[in-house]
Amino acid sequence: MSEISYYICMREILHSFQKNKHKKFSWKAWMKAFDKQDNEINPDDPYPWLPDLNIRKKMTDNKILDKFVNLNKSILIEGEKEDFQKILHKHKKAFLLRDEIGTCPDLLVHLELNNKEPFQI
Fold this sequence. Notes:
The chain is mostly helical.
């Protein structure tokens, strides 16, 4: 999903940049905006890794899911689509909505090592 997320991010950045900042797209101006953001850190920014031009930065989790999970071509009927959306919203913390690492607090994994001697990495 992170590859899809990256693609969506880049597409949205380009569209937003073209629409809001310049009538004609300029790679030089685009890179300058990224360089500026990389060098400035805002401690109040909850998503500092997302470029300022990324639309997901100001969207709620539910709005991101509603916008990017398109069920129009799904074989589900309307009631099932609504149920699926409710499940997505309930478990939204498990998804990479803003390229962060998802969480799954109820998962416990036990690994049995073949070699039980302590070692240092």
